[in-house]
Write a structure and sequence with these properties.
The complex is a heterodimer. In chain A, 53% of the residues lie in helices and 10% in strands. By secondary structure, chain A is α/β, with parallel strands linked by helices. Chain A contains 22 helices and ten strands. In chain A, a hairpin with a 4-residue loop joins strand 9 and strand 10. The radius of gyration of chain A is 29 Å and the shape is elongated. Chain A has four domains: 2-174 and 490-532, Rossmann fold (3-Layer(aba) Sandwich); 196-276, no CATH class; 283-393, no CATH class; 401-485, no CATH class. By secondary structure, chain B is α/β, with parallel strands linked by helices. Chain B has three domains: 4-162 and 371-425 and 548-622, NAD(P)-binding Rossmann-like Domain (Rossmann fold), CATH 3.40.50.720; 175-354, Orthogonal Bundle (Arc Repressor Mutant, subunit A); 435-541, Structural Genomics Hypothetical 15.5 Kd Protein In mrcA-pckA Intergenic Region, Chain A. Chain B is 36% helix and 13% strand. Chain B has helices at 4-12, 22-34, 67-78, 98-102, 114-127, 167-171, 177-193, 225-245, 248-251, 262-265, 271-274, 289-293, 304-321, 336-352, 360-368, 375-393, 446-455, 481-491, 555-574, 579-587; strands at residues 15-18, 38-42, 83-87, 106-109, 131-137, 140-146, 402-410, 413-418, 435-439, 463-467, 470-474, 507-512, 517-525, 538-541. Chain B is globular, with a radius of gyration of 26 Å. The chains are: A alpha/beta, B alpha/beta. Chains A and B meet through helix 1, helix 2, helix 3, helix 15 and helix 22 of A and helix 2, helix 3, helix 12, helix 15 and helix 16 of B. The structure holds zinc ion. Zinc ion (ZN) binds next to loops of chain B. Chain A: Keywords: Nucleotide-binding, Nucleus, Ubl conjugation pathway. Chain A: It holds the Pfam family ThiF. Chain A: Residues 15-512 form the THIF-type NAD/FAD binding fold domain.
Chain lengths: 534, 623
């Protein structure tokens, strides 16, 4: 028994620091995920390295190239051998033997095949993966791959390092996030609209008790519920809403203090705005509820079944509100009061969750699924995070390339901050066009730089005109700069772009946090970055 | 790097890296693969299991070995021709003096604590070597550049310091779980297994001298181990609380704690039953009470009875399996048995005081001030450090940036680059502005000024104190015996009675030769100090006083303040006037050091973020 316990506890130690970010659920999702990497240059290797360290389930590297002297300079291959021995070896194999050393819990595989060929000849290969990370792929291959991945509902993350610039783009039809973990969110206390049990509990405590020990240990939730009621009684049932009223409400709270250093009353004053929160449902959640996907059928995902249930809940038990989150913040209080409050919030959250569960079962029955096919844990997490749901939808690359939203693009060009990103975006696409014509990247021969600059410019103009942006001018300096980059995959940029790509994979796989909503462009010249929604 | 000029600069550069932890591993690799060929690396730490999820140069077989040496060897395997010199040493050691620093073109910090960061900042200023600073916490990170005369130094702006707690809150009136953790870790654990000669406030409440006549924590040679564990339990959770309860004054306005005795918490279990699982813990496995007792889930909150079982078991395991270490153990967040003891003791105490109990996972986070850490951020930050370092090497100071990496793209930006600020004219480190010290010169000893102000607040390592031309104190080796004796004598004197009396208006000169830092402190005599707000009995002003993190127990306030913080972040890009605010906002989540009487902060390998009680602040990233 003890040995088993140790075996269970041991691997966790290694992941202790990251479990504090995404928890056991997130870690379990990572351990189940299988990742495919196309091209194992520095950017791709960096991205995989981060995922392998974090304990991703399995990785498969697709790369048909051999290790060349330039790889030895900017990739950490061939860990345990003399560098030269790797020359001419399969790069995929070389990278994999290094990755495997990082974490023996990860399944590391490779396919010696060029990504382009794989995309052209064996599209069904990709359907076995959770996420495909495509690095340093030209536009034409990327377009095809995006089509394949979308058809199979596989998440695609494209990443590219190019000189001092780089790009990361997520592509998936729809990614629904329950645990979006926003930086800040108001506690779900319902002080503006307390339910019966909370009201009764608040009433059971005499906030005018002269016993100083009781008085200074009355939790601020109770103080606020009571005083909000008192305020409403004196104001036609309305809660403080104007600035002036809010100030007066704070004065009302202060008037109930027995002495100036009662922490709980200070907390009540500081939290008094929680009484005035706008009741009901936020626009973001409203949009999700009103989305056509919430009209569910047999092919709907669990997420949307839950949204459908949520919609019914709001209209019925919820009385226009979402299920209660059920937790309360720490506050100055007598433990007994605090624990009672905790229980009251928990109980309401459980009741709400049960109601949701009931509705979910009915919906499942209605659409022809087994009523128990969605786990209680999932429903619980959903209820707890009902205020924070997010639905991310990405346009396909086909749409992005062939049907750009001109008004958006023009806005980016006009904006000082995003103009550089737009320039790089166009130039990176122009580079691919030029490469298709000349079978090489611009700027790789010093002797031809002077000719490559105008060539790149011509290519860029053709990209612009295809987008319907005739007359938009690019920065001459950046054209020259991009030519000078000569397609080099320099390590600091690769580390950064690979880092961003792996971070997006973590968000997508754990379904926690919100992934980048567009094309992320990095400018290593002055370290700016932008997300362009194209 | 993308240009011939930068390639030359990179090839010719000699760089010093301080820290081979989370950022350090990534940085060393990135430097090597960018073409740097002369790298010196200092790190004091050895490798821990919990490093392995991101410090990718290390393997399981390296646990316990020097980070600096292992990192060097690992990188030399794929870049055999470059020169990497590794030092398994403290950057504060005398060998790393100003002359040592002068040989480098740039210094890159991947450090984990404020103390070392300040030290390196001073040496870089003295040696006039540019410094690139960095830190990460979870998905957040930052890179800043500090060049003497051109930008602000690392200490120009206040740094957050950890919250310190009044000793009496810890010893007798805890009101939050973190107080119980500090008690369990810094008092109880230290008393049981630490250096016996160290002062310890654990028994502060003994009503008479009776319990101190012999040390109750001492185990008699023939005392049965179970007996001993139960005796300790009853003493710290029962008897000590009873003694404290006698002090009626304390409880007038407070909830009275409940003494906890083993006969009540584990009435059914006899001594013999408690000793059943011993054989489970055989062999090479690290001793663990959780393993012995079959507790598997570190995220579950144990009952009072289970906490009591764990407490007794850990005590016994320490004596049975780790006897040799007793007397010189220091709490370490990666020491499973130590974490188990601290968790169970803190929970039993929390129960006594009506504070909610916590799981081992949460308690470990509080006790170790554990930082969220993930490979992705470190890799990204290392990339940015190198890009910045290349600019520094080329003297491209117009393009220096302080860059903040955010967790959620704000206004569509993941990175927040800001132009560096001018040096702060009133910075005592990089300017010559004098400081002001309010102190009672008639009652305060020189030792207190040196410990609480000069070492802890000003971060000096080996200070020297002069009053006018009279040298009253000097630290370090190589002193003559009579000098040393004389200084030792001075240390115990109150300021007004020093050979050159310190009174209202006296000016002290304090210097640290190693850091080549000198500053003046003007003395203001004051007799009254507020015990709660000014616990040192002295107040230092005229410097960028570290800001104590404003984290209250009130979640609402936190939400409110963080939302305004984010507005600031958003505005910063549009409005240059708010840049400083942005910096403060982002700095405040940054790492800190230890400087409190009751709380010792453990350093993690990346950066340290301090909260009063991390478990109560799930959203602390936004602070
Ligand atoms: Zn300064």
């Amino acid at each position: 028994m003890a040995a088993a316990a140790v075996a269970v506890a041991e691997p966790k130690t290694k992941y202790d620091r990251q479990l504090r970010i995404w928890g056991d659920q997130g870690q379990a999702a990572l351990e189940k995920a299988s990742i495919c990497l196309l091209n194992s240059g520095p950017t791709g290797t960096e991205a995989l390295k981060n995922l392998v360290l974090g304990g991703i389930g399995s990785v498969t590297v697709v790369d048909g190239s051999k290790v060349e002297p330039s790889d030895l300079g900017n990739n950490f291959l061939c860990n345990s051998r003399v560098n030269k021995e790797c020359l001419g070896q399969s790069r995929a194999q070389s990278v994999c033997s290094f990755l495997q050393e990082l974490n023996d819990a990860v399944k590391v595989k490779y396919v010696e095949e060029s990504p382009g060929t794989m995309i052209d000849t064996n599209p069904s290969f990709f359907s076995q993966f959770t996420v495909v990370i495509a690095t340093q792929l030209p536009e034409s291959s990327l377009l095809k791959l995006d089509g394949i991945c979308r058809a199979a509902d596989i998440v695609l993350v494209a990443a590219r390092s190019y000189g001092l610039t780089g790009l990361v783009r997520v592509s998936v039809k729809e990614h629904c996030v329950i645990e979006s973990k926003p930086d800040h969110f108001l506690d779900d206390l319902r002080l503006h609209n307390p339910w019966t049990e909370l009201k009764q509990f608040a009433k059971s405590i005499d906030i005018c008790d002269k016993d100083p020990v009781v008085h200074k240990h009355t939790p601020y939730i109770v103080i606020l519920v009571r005083l909000a009621e008192k305020w409403a009684d004196a104001h036609d049932g309305k809660l403080p809403s104007t600035r002036q009223e809010k100030r007066e409400f704070k004065d009302l709270i202060r008037a109930h203090m027995l002495n100036v250093d009662e922490e709980n009353y200070k907390e009540a004053v500081e939290s008094s705005y929680k009484v005035s929160v706008t009741p009901g449902i936020s626009t973001e959640i409203r949009q999700i509820i009103d989305d056509s996907s919430s009209e569910v059928n047999l092919s709907s995902s669990d997420f949307w079944v839950l949204v459908a249930a949520l919609k019914e809940f709001i209209a019925n038990e919820g009385n226009g509100d979402l299920p209660l989150e059920g937790t309360i913040p720490d506050m100055t209080s007598q433990t007994e009061y605090y624990v009672s409050l905790q229980k009251i919030y928990q109980a309401k959250a459980e009741t709400d969750c049960l109601a949701m569960e009931h509705r979910v079962k009915n919906i499942l029955k209605r659409i022809g699924r087994h009523p128990d096919s969605i786990s209680r844990a999932y429903i619980k997490t959903f209820c707890k995070n009902a205020r924070k749901l997010r639905v991310c939808r990405y346009r396909s690359m086909e749409e992005e390339f062939n049907a750009p939203v001109i008004s958006e693009v023009q806005k980016y060009f006009a904006d000082e901050d995003s103009c550089f990103a737009m320039n790089f975006y166009i130039l990176l696409r122009a580079v691919d066009r030029l490469a298709a014509n000349y079978s090489r990247l611009p700027g790789i021969f010093d002797s031809e730089i002077d000719e490559d600059v105008p060539r790149l410019k011509v290519a860029a103009v053709s990209v612009l005109s295809d987008m319907g942006l005739n007359g938009t001018s690019l920065s001459e300096d950046l054209v020259t700069e991009v030519c000078r980059f000569a397609g080099a995959e320099i390590h600091p940029v690769a580390a950064f772009i690979g880092g961003v790509a792996s971070q997006e994979v973590i968000k997508l796989v754990t379904k926690q946090f919100v992934p980048l909503m567009g094309t992320f462009i990095f400018n290593g010249i002055d370290l700016k970055s932008q997300v362009l929604a194209l | 790097m993308a240009s011939a000029a930068s390639e030359e600069a990179v090839k010719a550069a000699k760089v010093l890296m301080v820290g081979a932890g989370g950022i350090g591993c990534e940085l060393l690799k990135t430097l090597a693969l960018t073409g740097f060929s002369d790298i010196h690396l200092i790190d004091l730490d050895t490798i821990e299991v919990s490093n392995l999820n991101r410090q990718f140069l290390f393997r399981k077989s390296h646990v316990g070995q020097s980070k600096a040496h292992v990192a060097r060897d690992a990188v030399l395997k794929f870049r055999p021709k470059i020169n990497i010199s590794s030092y398994h040493a403290n950057v504060k050691d005398a060998q790393f003096n100003v002359d040592f620093f002068k040989q480098f073109n740039v210094v890159l910090n991947g450090l984990d604590n404020l103390d070392a960061r300040r030290h390196v900042n001073r040496l870089c200023l003295a040696a006039e070597v540019p410094l690139v600073e960095s830190g990460t916490t979870g998905f957040l990170g930052q890179v800043t550049v500090h060049v003497k005369g051109k930008t602000e130094c690392y200490e120009c702006q206040p740094k957050p310091v950890p919250k310190s707690y009044p000793v009496c809150t810890i010893t007798s009136t805890p009101s939050k779980f973190v107080h119980c953790i500090v008690w369990a870790k810094d008092l109880l654990f230290a008393k049981l297994f630490g250096d016996k000669n160290q002062d310890n406030d654990l028994n502060v409440h003994s009503k008479d001298g009776s319990s101190s006549k012999s040390d109750v924590f001492e185990r008699d040679v023939d005392e049965d181990l179970d007996q001993y564990a139960r005796r300790i339990y009853d003493h710290v959770f029962g008897y000590n609380i009873e003694v404290a309860l006698d002090n009626e004054e304390t409880w007038k306005n407070r909830r009275r704690p409940t003494p906890v005795y083993i006969r009540d918490t584990l009435p059914e279990e006899t001594v013999q039953q408690n000793g059943t699982s011993r054989e489970c813990n055989n062999g090479h496995e690290e001793p663990s009470a959780m393993a012995s007792l079959g507790f598997r889930n570190p995220q579950e909150i144990w009952t009072l009875a289970d906490n009591s079982r764990v407490f007794l078991e850990t005590l016994k395991l320490f004596f049975e399996k780790r006897q040799k270490e007793i007397g010189n153990l220091i709490f370490d967040k990666d020491d499973q048995l130590a974490v188990e003891l601290v968790t169970s003791a803190a929970n039993i105490r929390a129960h006594s005081f009506g504070i909610p109990l916590h799981s081992l996972f949460e308690a470990k986070g509080v006790a170790g001030n554990i930082v969220h850490a993930v490979a992705t951020t470190n890799a990204m930050i290392a990339g940015l450090i190198v890009i910045e370092a290349v600019k520094v090497l080329q003297g491209d100071y117009k393009n220096y940036r302080m860059t903040y990496c955010l967790e959620h793209a704000k206004r569509k930006m993941l990175l927040m680059p800001v132009e560096p600020f001018e040096p702060n004219e009133s910075c005592y480190v990089c300017s010559e502005t004098p400081l002001l010290l309010d102190v009672n010169t008639k009652t305060t000893k020189l030792r207190e000024v040196i410990d609480k102000i000069i070492k802890s607040k000003l971060g000096m390592n080996l200070p020297l104190v002069m009053i006018g031309s009279t040298l009253v104190f000097e630290d370090g080796d190589g002193l003559e015996e009579d000098e040393a004796a004389n200084y030792a004598l001075n240390l115990e004197k109150v300021l007004a009675e020093l050979p050159a009396p310190v009174i209202n208006g006296t000016k002290l000169t304090v210097e640290d030769f190693q850091q080549e830092l000198s500053c003046s402190i003007n003395i203001k005599h004051r007799e009254e100090f507020d015990e709660e707000k000014e616990p040192d009995g002295m107040v230092l002003s005229g410097w960028s006083a570290p800001v104590e993190k404003q984290v209250t127990s009130n979640g609402g306030k936190l939400a409110a303040s963080s939302s305004s913080a984010h507005d600031t972040v958003g505005d910063a890009s549009a409005n240059p006037g708010t840049k400083r605010k942005l910096d403060e906002v982002l700095e405040s989540k940054e790492n800190c050091d230890a400087s409190s009487s009751a709380q010792v902060i453990e350093d993690d390998d990346d950066t340290i973020m301090l909260d009063e009680d991390p478990t109560l602040l799930k959203k602390k990233r936004s602070q």
